[in-house]
Design brief:
Elements lengths: L2 H18 L10 H28 L1 H7 L4 H4 L4 H22 L1 H19 L7 H17 L3 H7 L4 H14 L8 H24 L3 H24 L3 H13 L1 H12 L2 H8 L1 H11 L4
Length: 286
């Protein structure tokens, strides 16, 4: 299920809520907002976890050769058990999303379809990175959809995670056999577009001073391993760049919260970063 990655998916949803104005609204009682928040967090846990499980299910034969340490080829869990687990997680994710709203539920269905299409076909096609990015883009919209008028205003922000994750997925294709410096340079350009947009939106919302430290942290986390991989694009270096790109999503989402909400909310999201890093030491990220 990649627990460290699931934490970043929760951060996506929280960032979406901040963009919608949900976290920044004046609430007489925070408990009024707690149930839909928890349901969306449960939804993204189920959707991401289920999507990753089915990734391993559909890669089971290939993993026997390339990654025999993974749970299915190593015999820790059977293929049938993995299918049941993945199906259950996706179902929980979809149902939890529908408890928040009909549109939210349909977005969850879109994430499910996108993840399964990527697992079965997308990862082997040139359009695969965009397919993977679509899962993250929809995940951000899952959070924004908690306030429907905000979804109509900020739907286009789902494109930003698509660009970012497409770049991470693009370089990940060299994780086993190595890549090329040109691939890393393409990713660097995509990264620059993403954090450039983040600075622009923070400035537009008059939160530039508040959001800048979070954006700078995000830039450092993604560019340090990418620079190493650019100089020496070996499999292990690319793996570290991919891992860094995924874990850095927490800092990216904290920056979104800072750009659209308040410092306390941004810091609460950033707390997920050390949690994700600790989990990354115990569980695989890629």
């Amino acid at each position: 299920m990649r627990p460290a990655n699931i934490v970043t998916a929760v951060a996506d949803v929280l960032a979406g809520m901040a963009i919608s104005g949900f976290l920044g609204s004046e609430v007489v009682n925070y408990l009024d907002h707690l149930l839909p928040l928890l349901c969306l967090c449960l939804a993204t846990v189920g959707l991401y976890g289920g999507g990753v499980v089915f990734n391993d299910v559909m890669d089971a034969k290939l993993d026997k050769v390339e990654r025999p340490e993974r749970p299915i080829p190593s015999g820790i869990i059977s293929l049938a058990q993995a299918i049941v687990l993945g199906s259950y997680l996706l179902l929980v994710g979809i149902l939890a999303a529908f408890t928040v709203g009909r549109i939210t539920g349909f977005i969850a269905l879109g994430i499910t379809v996108s993840a399964l299409v990527y697992n079965k076909w997308g990862k082997h096609q040139a359009w695969g990175p965009v397919n993977m990015g679509l899962c993250r883009g929809l995940n951000l919209l899952l959070g924004i959809s908690i306030v429907l008028p905000a979804l109509q205003t900020y739907w286009w922000m789902g494109i930003i995670p698509v660009i970012y994750i497409a770049a991470v997925t693009y370089i990940s294709r060299g994780e086993v056999h190595g890549g090329t410096p040109a691939t890393m340079r393409v990713a660097a350009v995509c990264y620059a577009v993403v954090y450039g947009t983040m600075f622009a939106l923070a400035y537009y919302n008059e939160h530039l001073l508040l959001a800048s430290p979070f954006i700078i942290l995000f830039i450092i986390l993604i560019n340090r391993p990418l620079w190493t991989a650019m100089k020496e694009p070996t499999g292990p270096n690319i793996g570290k760049a991919v891992k860094g790109g995924i874990i850095a999503l927490v800092a990216m989402n904290a920056a979104w919260v800072a750009a659209f909400s308040t410092l306390p909310h941004a810091l609460l999201v950033l707390i997920l970063l050390p949690i994700s890093l600790l989990m990354a030491k115990a569980f695989a990220v890629t």
